[in-house]
Amino acid sequence: MSCPRVGHINFLNVLPLTWSYAHGADQGLAITRGVPAVLNNDIVNHRLDVSNVSSIVYARDSEELVVLPDVCISTDGAVQSILLVSRKPIDDIKDDKIILTAKSATSHCLLKIILRGAYGAIPNYFVRHITPEDPIPEDATASLLIGDDALWLYHHKQPDLYYYDLGYEWKKMTGQKMVYALWVANKNFAEQNPELLQLVYDRIHRAFQTGMDHKKEVIESALPHKPFTYEQLDDYLGPTIHWDLTAEYLEGLRTFYSLAHQMNLIEHIPEIKLADVKR
Ligand SMILES: C=C(O[C@@H]1C=C(C(=O)O)C=C[C@H]1O)C(=O)O
């Protein structure tokens, strides 16, 4: 095998890695860019060898996957880019109709856990494509958005709607950190290609360090293409989004899996198997 097939989420929450790939870290890798839901599907169908995926995907397919250590997309509290936008206060949501963005998987579960666990609500959920300019379809009470769409909404709030940050809500409910996304490798690929796995791990792990050493340049690289200011991205990347998969973040991930299991969103609580790479 020559070029490992690597999935990359095309959201600003991984901008340091996007920047590093554009500055040579993609050499020898075949990169596929997409929204989480598409990459989730591609890794479990073996169209990718390694990918950034929704963290719930690992729990659903842990027999076939291993987790790359030290890297993830996570927050300790507010995330800004995973939002429930609602026509009514969250306390008044009961069996209402809620639209879930088709781009996500983890946040679907996170919202269900929070609404049931913290607000006693069991709404009717429907998955649809939603745009941030028109976030709540006429027939629904609320919508869940993620990524750049949600970040844009966070900075363009309408006075007649209510906004809830699910990172903040998770921290309030559990006291824990939250891991939204992991990098996983297909087990067969990992076992048969240890050197390529090491190469991909080194590139991704280093990219966040190098990227943050060049934070100004990294942010400026996105400004011409994205509807955000320097200050907004400076606040989002670094203090808000974290990329270190430390013991505390792993604990938050285990709590998430455990609550997802209690709600029958996953069949079992997986053991988190880390890929065998030199760190
Ligand atoms: C923080 C975020 O984390 C993400 C949320 C995901 C999900 O809900 O499945 C998947 C990947 C991450 O991009 C975000 O998208 O804003």
From TrEMBL:
Q: What is its EC number?
A: 4.2.1.151
**What Gene3D superfamilies does its record include?**
Periplasmic binding protein-like II
User: Which domain of life, per UniProt?
Assistant: Bacteria
Q: Which UniProt keywords apply?
A: Lyase, Menaquinone biosynthesis
TM annotation in the entry: none
Please state what class of enzyme this protein is: lyase
Protein family (similarity comment): Belongs to the MqnA/MqnD family. MqnA subfamily.
In terms of PANTHER family, this protein maps to: CHORISMATE DEHYDRATASE
Q: What is this protein called?
A: Chorismate dehydratase
Taxonomic lineage of the native organism: Bacteria, Bacillati, Bacillota, Negativicutes, Selenomonadales
Q: Which gene encodes it?
A: mqnA
